[in-house]
Amino acid sequence: MPAPRTLDIQQLEDRRLLALNPTGAEQELLQLINRFRTSPSAEFGRMFSSVSPLRARDADVQSQVDYFGTNGTVLKQEFDALDPSPPLAWNDAINTYAKQHNTSMTNASPPHAFHSNTAQRRQALIDAGVNLRIVAGEKIQSENVFGAGTSPQQILAAYLVEWGPGPNGMLGHRRHREALLNPDFEQMGQALTTFTGGTLGPIVNTQIMANIEDPPTMAVGALFEDTNASGWYENGEGIGGATIRFVGASGTYTTQSLSAGGYQIELPSGSYQVTASGGGMKHAVVSSVTIGSTNAWLNLEYDPASPPPDRLEPNNSTGAASSLTGEAQTVSGLS
Fold first, then answer.
1. Which of 280, 323, 327, 333 is the most exposed place for a label (fewest CB within 10 A)?
2. What is the pTM (predicted TM-score) of this model?
């Protein structure tokens, strides 16, 4: 029987986006977190195939719920009562701090999981340009730490299930889950470090969610090819270097997908037609999104066998056709 793996928690961007470039594993965990935030009650069925007995789809998750005797009926009831929250955008300044904290844990003697000092963390983030919102009745920031990760899926499950030695095979609180779902938070940074030593490993995770003053509203998500037909983004499936164009009544806005396939872009409120092209794709990915007062989550899945239908309108140019299909075209009858 594997040793128990439990968690810790404590209780962080401005409009300036830094040199964003999460790793593939960090992007995968961000995707999983936003999937949970936007549809939290459905996450139980994504993690587990049955309630009683509780059967996990991931073997490492199964070993932990077996060890602690987690009560699937109680857990399912808790998930059914959860309300959705908007997705989180990535913040590189917070990511940098999370990496530093991982290093502090792996360099400790002996290496072990612990939280950073709340006041020092807050000041360090402010000094790094993170514009924290400090309002009575709202959470400012939260930190989750897990030192015994095996994969992004298992790390998320550890935070959401809260397995541990308390009643019903769970911890006596739900603070990790609450931190990940808190609607006060708009942005996050996290770090995944491969390390084995002391009580840590093989993956160490620090994540910090932040309440931002006057946060920009963003479209966030990933451009990817589902190469293993899992129906979901996984590390290694992202398509980097593609141009993603948002066209709406307020104008046209463009960004590029990052090396792991993730993207985010600040947009005015409104509805947008979205086209992703380039990045080695044979044709474009076409979608749409509506931006309101909070972040919106839009994933763009590339299927090389299924190009989108042409959506040319009168007076479109050859360039517009190319942006939709990703290939040069000759278009007649247009002026």
1. 333
2. 0.87
